[in-house]
Amino acid sequence: MEQRADMDWMLKDLAESVPQTRHIVVLSSDGLCMARYDTDMDAADRLAAIGSGLQSLSVAVASEFPHSDGRMRMVVIEVSGGFMYLMAAGAGAHLAVLADEGVDAGLVGQCMRDLVARIGAHLTSPPRNDGQVP
Known about the structure:
Layout: H1 5-17, E1 21-28, E2 33-37, H2 41-62, E3 74-79, E4 82-88, E5 93-100, H3 105-119
Helix pairs in contact: 1-3
Protein name: Roadblock/LC7 domain-containing protein
Pfam families: Robl_LC7
InterPro entries: Mycobact_SerProt_Inhib_Rv3364c, Roadblock/LAMTOR2_dom
């Protein structure tokens, strides 16, 4: 999938609003990097692949709840050194943020929600037909 450079600026506000943000990536459900901010392409591709896997696992978790609609809203992973946040961000798109250990976790979540609410329509990955993006 071709990098959508015009979406990168939308991520800048999140990066500047949350100190200790390390990487911000928008990814498609199938793990392709759609946009990134202040993140090199190799790291963005790795995070997109990780995010896709987490999204898939979260759907399996959701199936264990009888009244779930099966959709992932947010996944947070805390590891030694920091956090990874993954949030649904439109049809077939997700927002991933990596942040250092001292980050304000509530602020990250709130800023991600605000970003998705403001620009969710732009953070959508159309389904691919025969491997092609329309």
